[in-house]
Every structure is written in C-alpha cells, then in structure tokens.
Amino acid sequence: MAEEKKKPAVGLQPEGEVDWSDYQGILVVVEQREGSAKKVSWQLLGESKRMADKLNAPLMAMVIGHGVEEVAKEAIYYGADKVFICDSPELKDYRTRPYSKVCLHVIREFKPEIVLFGATYTGRDLAGAIATHLPTGLTADCTQLDVNEERLLMASRPAFSEKMLATILCKQFKPQMATARSGVFQSLPRDDSRVGEIIRIEPQMDEQEIATEVLEFVESTHGINLEDAEVIVSGGRGLGGPAGFKILQELANALGGVVGASRPAFEAGWITHDHQVGQTGSTVHPKLYIACGISGAIQHTIGMQSSDYIIAINKDPEAPIFKIANYGIVGDLFEIVPALTKAALAKKGKQAAVASAVTNG
User: Fold this and answer.
1) pTM for this predicted structure
2) Longest alpha-carbon distance in the chain
3) Is 339 helix (H, G, I), strand (E, B) or coil?
C-alpha cells in the first residue's frame, strides 16, 4: 500500500521555491507613542547589534507613525544601520491592520532574517498579526536572545510553570520572529555622531480602507511603572500579609522609589499584579533594588538580577537571594526596614537643611 504524503497546512508554506539565503539582517520594529519611542525598542537594538555583529549582517529598524522623523534618527543613534520610516497622518495612532500591512511590505521587500518586537500590548498584537500572514512562527515574551553558527535565532522564554527556560528555534522558514520583554536587555549608549540610511516607505492602506477609528486615549489612573523606577523596594512571602507592604511603602517614599512584589505575595492577594517583579511580572533594572522577605527563587530573580545594586533582607541566612545581592542583611525585616526608613528620612532632612542654608546665603 502506497504511503500517502501529508499535505502541509494551508498558509504555512510559501508559494513556489524560496531561497532563504536571500534573507539577511535583523529588523527591530520600533514602538513609539506621540513621537516618543518605548525604551524596549532601544534595548532590543542594543541586543540586536551584538547578534548582527555575530552574523556579519546589517541591523535595521522600522518606525511607523506620523511626525516620527526624529524617532528614525534616534534609531540610528541607538545602533541601527538602516531605518525604514513610514510617516503618514493615518498612521498617527496604532491600529493593527495599517501597521501590519506596512511591516509585511518591508519584510517581503527587504527580507530580514530576524524580526523583533517589544513584548508590550502593542508589540504582541502587531507581531501576532504579522505572523499569521507569513510562513513562519513567533516566539513570544522572550527573556534571552542569541544566534548560533547556523544563523538560527535562539529565543528563550519561561516554560513549565516558570521552572525553566525553553529555547525555541525556527529551523525551516524566515523571518524568525520574537517578542522580548522590556528591561531585560541593555541599550547601547546614544551616539549622535552615528550615520545611517533612512528609507521612506509609502503607506499600504488609505484611511477609507481602515475599518477602525481611534476616538481618544484615556490614561489609566491606576498602576505603577516598575520598568522606569530607579529605586524599588520589594516584598515577598516573608511579609506575612498585606499589612507588611505599608512599611515597604514608607521606605520607598523616603527613597523616592516604588513598591514591588514577588509572585507569592501577589497570588496571596496581598498586592496587585502591577507590582509584581519576575517572569510573569515586570523585568526591571533599577539603580537600587531592596528585596524584603524574598527567598530568591529563579522565577523572581530573573526579573531583577540586572539591577545596579541589590540589598537583600531575610531572616534565613541560607536564602538564595543572598547569592546575587551586593549587600545582605540577616534579620527581622520588621525591625530593619523601619530603621532604614528613619535613616533615609534623616539624611533627606540634612540635605534639605543644607540646601536651604545655601539658598538663603
């Protein structure tokens, strides 16, 4: 009996023969809002520059919007060799179809071998929409990126209930696509002496072809921005309950920072999800991270281990958090944290007095 060949799923195979060697370089889709780029875009350019150098390939960026000429120039200053810009009134606000049509045009015309997006609400939506029209896959929410000797993107993301990282490869088709978390990678220093090529792309849809219309943006009055915070005071299971976060908030206020939390603290209902740091929360890179009553499980540390300075406070001297901390304090956090708050307020008071004396001559 002759073996019946299984037909490939519709849409997964490109029409005709494709020479995948034609695909070269890395493309980072820059996300912007009202002419200001998201930090994750520059972070991705920094990491992509390292990978592009390994591939001996160009680093490209894609900027879509209206009045975004300066964003395109900034992309060059942050490492891009070539920037595609599509600037038009109908692209002022993000809408899935017109943005995805522009990206698809650039991908098909210029053939990057890797395409990367920030794992933001917009980035996830745009990447998913594009992937449905291409003969390729999409690895979402990555925390590590690299390339191997076969020019394959090694996109790593949390797996198996966040107990390990899975590295995913797209071996057959291009472009290889991924979204990556904010705060994981470091952007290159801004260099306004860099020069690069800017290529203008025409919009792929007229306004009358776009089914949706943006009426207004309503800014959220809730939540905090962990990713941009310079000081974070985080609490974990060791706080024992929601009341413990009050003393962390007092210390955060004294230091000009914000309050973070581990996953167990959030899952216990002690604090809201927007405070969570870790694999299923925010990835942060503050100047100072104070971990209070946090054991140091990998699910948490992967989201904060790149902080400039880490201070760990835990009554267990064997807690794993001490292995990555710059400074460790073994003791009762309910005694130590208030003492730190008192010291911070006293220092602020002295600084204010000095400033006042200088001002008054």
Assistant:
1) 0.76
2) 100
3) helix
